[in-house]
## 1
Amino acid sequence: MIVVSDTTPIHYLILTGYADVLPQLYGSLVIPTAVHLELTHLCAPESVRQWMSQRRDWLEIWEADTIPDSLVILDRGEQEAITLAMRFNALLLIDERRGRSLANAHGLSITGTLGVLIEAANAQMISLPEAVSKLRQTSFQISERLLEMVLGLH
């Protein structure tokens, strides 16, 4: 199965120290060129840029084809990630509400940063309460109510 990621899931998994669950869960991960540019841009946190500067065999960068008109309202990384996921009928890692909505409308299977962390916790790779605590220390935007519900179910 091909797994494609938008910027934010990788960004926050790097910031929290959990990016290495990605190859354990999915084997390999594809990011479009625009996502690579966002993760290596000078505006990205130094730790993210530094992590991205190291070669990882399980992380591939692919060019996206022509972007469907329905996606032009999204930023370039989301456009390219959804386009690649559509092309390969891939699982899409994406957090932004509008992008998730359009990905769903195109029939894609999606999960996000929290979904990856839950999957890793279910596989006993990480402690979910610890991961959520680290996620709360970043600028990741999610309701406290949802986080508490997830922790209560786990």
## 2
Amino acid sequence: MKQARNTPSNVDEYISWFPSDVRQVLKKIRSTIRKAAPKAEETISYQIPAYKLNGKVLIFFAGFQKHVSVYPAPRGTDEFREELAGYKGGKGTVQFPLENPIPYDLIARIVNFRAASIIAETSARPKK
């Protein structure tokens, strides 16, 4: 699994730290995010892959031994509340067990939802 306390220099390096089966899932999550938000900037933040849009965090993803996580997850919104209730995770996190099919379509919808929120928020701000 991930090397303890090391910060990867980029997303490719982060993904390379995992076993082959987890790497494939992480690569697919990465491509799902890129397709859903092609203008998002890919970076490493808090030692995991992160995507920023208009200077704000769009989404993070991380790999673990038995699951992958994405966050922030819109658990409190009507659009996602029921669907995300079936997955473990904290208030703003969702865990997808590696033993089950990963719902890439759901991840894409979360990214689209978050991107729309960020765009609305940043375009509503008065210019300095």
## 3
Amino acid sequence: MNYFFIDYENVNHQGLEGIEDLNSDDCVIIFYSANANSITFEMHNKMNISKADIVFEKVNVGKKNALDFQLATYIGYVIGKNEGTDAAYHLVTKDSEFSVIGKFWQRKNKTFSVIERIAKKAAEPEEALEMRLAAVLSDKTEIPVIAKIIRQYKTKQGINSALMKKFPSQNHQKASEIYKSIKPLIADKKGN
């Protein structure tokens, strides 16, 4: 499952680009205030198409960085609530100061990225994918090969087939184990 926390005051509707491509097991939480509380008709249509669960959190303002503090608190709440799961967390903001939150949760072995729009998740930097793989794979030498396969194929079936070819052990047991480990990381890919 992917959680997208949207700093709407900061990114407005541009941060929601890509929302229409999310899956039913994704959740988008839009933090907005009286300072930023409107969307375009085009984005409204994309949100209606989206299979993701979309939650709106109107925050109180009046103090400097009020939305940021409430957003940071809520992120910690959601991560704590999902302890023991393979959920991935994405903070959608252009505010570079939020990178400290990402680094904090990565040190706690959580999959966490700070991106400028939902669509950027699909084009995450190589090191981010490799960090996420390192958290779920026991054999670290296989990470570059598996990362390449994930980037190369657009569907879960394509990734699984490529793993079967790359790791042809008896009854494809190794490929099956790898696929099972990485499945939460490829939840955004098409297929079952």
## 4
Amino acid sequence: MARRRKSIHGEWSSRWAFILAASGSAVGLGNIWKFPYLAGDNGGGAFVLIYLISVAVVGIPIMMAEVMLGRRGRQSPINTMRTLAAEEGLSRHWKWLGGAGVAAGFLILSYYSIIAGWTLAYVFHTGSGTFTGASAEAVSTAFNDFVADPERLLAWHTIFMVMTMVVVSRGVRSGLEQAVRYLMPVLVLLLLLLVGYAMNTGFFIEGLKFLFSPDFSKITGWGILAAMGQAFFSLSLGMGAIMVYGSYLPRRASIARSSINVAIADTSVAILAGIAIFPIIFANGLNPGQGVGLVFKTLPLAFGQMPGGVFFGTLFFVLLLFAAWTSGISLVEPAVAWLVENRGMTRVKASVLVGAATWLLGLGTLFSFNIWSDYTLFGKMTFFDALDFLTANIMLPAGGLLIAVFAGWLMSRKASMQELAIGNDAGYRAWQFLVRYITPLAVIAVLLHVTGVMKWITA
């Protein structure tokens, strides 16, 4: 029966279309904004090495499991998990695993859209020469004034949400596939141009040494867990996006090869972002451990002081915008797919409804940077901080853990072997060992660390 299932939403035209789409989902602000500043905060090379190991032993096995579940179910994550649980004689409550993924994607996009709106605004700020010759104080003041203005943030948030929902409303081949078919190659081209520019800063070797010369004296327990968490978040695992994209994967496509290719593409973009960014930082005598302000405070200052800075700075923020756009599309697709399947809505109506709800929830994040900045949850977190912590540190790892449990322990060997079609028993056993033992232990370590953080927050 599972072999004859078809998605009512259509399929990707090829395995490469899926790889582009899933890579677009995975490649986002997490790669180009978050990865460089985490590497900068945690000593560079040691963090990168642990991140790469985490992608291999944690990320890829869970991605294979999530794609496998999606393709076997051929529906939205909620309906897929309900169908597969029934197929295996398990509780219908497994549908809530799919529901948690859909909810996580919805919550993430609500604040992701605000940050993407900043990026969109900075395309125009940088292109107009706002930061040319500006001092560090002026760049910082410009950013602080920008996020303190709710009306300006609202405009950019609205524009980004409209951009995202227009693509989603057009369906799998006409919308999602066509968008990533053009956006992903352009994104990679822009990134390579920035790498080329970084090679001529005079500090390219210093940047490479920082990224690829491990100094384990600079890595802490928190840094190790941050690298593991970044690998998980970066690949878009546990948020329903990869599962629903997997439901559109053609039967003839190899899940293992496709997942590995997506992981390689995603990791390559993160590494290239570091290669492009750190030489620019060192060339301007700046500190690589600037945290979340790296992109919106440190880099505009650097671009404002260098020859051709207006052009290359604008190029950088266009790149960041494209990355955010492809991720935003994937975050909302699971909820839209569920409404089409369960409520009989057209994709246009479902996209408008989900987009409006996401936009509305995003106002909480938007206001947390200005008029609600004094209101905190748990005594220490703004609305944005709480939402980011809940999704990235609890919902996604927990979702990934349960996906590993379902695929590795509860799904029959016959079903998983049939769907994965790895081609040799040794390859299947290796995947099963990782998804049963290594991956769950790694995710549990992250969750235990989060428990410790929560105790500190609520103390």
